[in-house]
Amino acid sequence: MSELMMTVWGNALFGCELAVILARRPDMTVMLFDADLLAPAADIFLGVSKSSGGIESLFACTDRRRIRVGDVWDASCQVQKGFHVLKGNTSIENYEYY
Known about the structure:
Layout: H1 12-23, E1 30-33, H2 42-46, H3 55-59, H4 69-75, E2 77-80, E3 83-86
Parallel strand pairs: 1-3
Antiparallel strand pairs: 2-3
């Protein structure tokens, strides 16, 4: 299993396309984190619903003062086999966290 961490700054579409291509490799598992907290777009490009989840779900974990790896996987949405996305903020009520 290959592991890779990278950052794509300012181009969510490119980041999504690259993640989809990497996830097609049988030896890769990809977690795309849409870290644009004020204008997330990965869910739109990937066709993931704007339902609850994503980073909003991780806010509940802050009460424990730590976030576990399992919490991140649980908060993500599976796009396809081997490919998950952690969606950005979609609720203006959570703006205070930023």
